[in-house]
Amino acid sequence: MNHPSTAIVVLNYNGIDVTKKFFSHLYEHTENFHVIIIDNGSDDGSVEYLSDLSSNKDNITLVCNDSNLGVIGGRNQGFNIYQSLADRPSYLSYLDNDQFVQSGWLQHHHDVLEQSNADVVGVEAWLMSNSFLPMRQCKRPTEPWTYVGCGGMLMKGEIPMKIGMFDEQFNPCYFEDPDLCFRVLDAGYKLCWNYKARLIHIPHQTLGKNPKRMELFKRSHEKFRNKWRGKKVRPMRQHSVDALK
Q: What is the pLDDT, as a whole number, of residue 203?
């Protein structure tokens, strides 16, 4: 292990079984990290489990909210805690609690950043239409892509210090990912996609169960269109990860 110290922000909301598996993988396969856990008002035993976990680890900051701040609100809360850490790591990552990391995942992420000469790396790339709708998740490295998702993202800590974290107008969820990526690019930073990322994603363990998810999606899409009206969507291509095992 030779990668820099990294802060990892993780959200949980009534996902105790998934979250237990998440932390089992995280602590087995991760080194040189500090984890910031935000519990968004769970009532399924998660608070008791996370409190016990944090009392037995020396690299956890745990916050248990009385209510659900939403995905974006919770992630921003995690970033605020990151800023306040006395020994703040130089890199910041966001993991979803349904992303189960594998051996060497964080070192690999840092290697991709270095090889790509990039500032932000994501594990899921999406192609967006000119009307700002996600068209498809990209699977092949030769495909063009527009932005990377925030779940599994690793970035230099200086970036959100300069451009801010997630735009709260999209809370509780949706379109915070392309919005952040667009701001990253506009600020002169570089994105890359680690399509060989060493993690297994079992998506929509929380958000996918929300009966209002399509309503939330449409609302955030309209706000995103209004914010970025007139911007040209420019797909990117990348081949630099091919040399990494």
A: 73
pLDDT digit string, tens, across residues 112-169: 999 999 999 999 999 999 999 999 999 998 899 999 999 999 999 999 999 999 999 9
CA 125, CA 144: separation in Å to the nearest integer? Answer: 9
Residue type, 233: V
Please identify, in words, the CATH class of the domain defined by 6-243: alpha beta
**Strands of 125-128's sheet in order across:** 134-137, 125-128, 147-148
Q: Are 102 and 205 in contact (CB under 8 A)?
A: no
Domain boundaries, the chain: 6-243
Strands 6-12 and 33-39: parallel
Q: How far apart are CA 194 and CA 71, in angstroms?
A: 23
The alpha-helical segments, DSSP class H, found in the chain are: 16-29, 46-55, 70-84, 105-116, 158-163, 176-186, 213-228
Residue type, position 71, single letter: V
Dihedral sign of CA atoms 170, 6, 36, 22 in order? positive
> What tokens were used for 194?
């680690």
Q: What is the pLDDT of residue 240?
A: 55
As a whole number of Å, the end-to-end CA separation of the chain is 16
Q: Which residue has the tokens 């944090």?
A: 54
Stretches where the chain sits below pLDDT 70 are 1, 204-210, 239-245
Please give the pLDDT value at position 243. 46
d(CA 212, CA 114): 40
